[in-house]
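Q: Structure tokens for this one, please.
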Amino acid sequence: MPDTPDVTVRLFARLQEAAGAREVSVRAGDIRSVVETLVERYPALRAELLDKAGNLRSTIKVMVNGRNTAYLRCLSTPVGEGDAVAIFPLVAGG
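A: Here is the predicted structure, written as tokens:
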């Protein structure tokens, strides 16, 4: 994928533990490609990020440059060279 940009991905909470890294760089053109690359590279992330049907879990939030992809184009949200993607699980507690 020579024309695919490098994207920095920050992982939070249990996602860091599953990947064994806080920050990684991936080559991807959209959020779907980011997620696919992550689960391919770090198989333990599959159960954390995806449900049994292969869809992004509703408890996972993805931000691109500080903007929630739920309000953009979800998994089709494009990413470009140097973009920062943050992926984190929702946490609850009191």
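A few notes: The chain has a mean pLDDT of 94. The radius of gyration is 12 Å.
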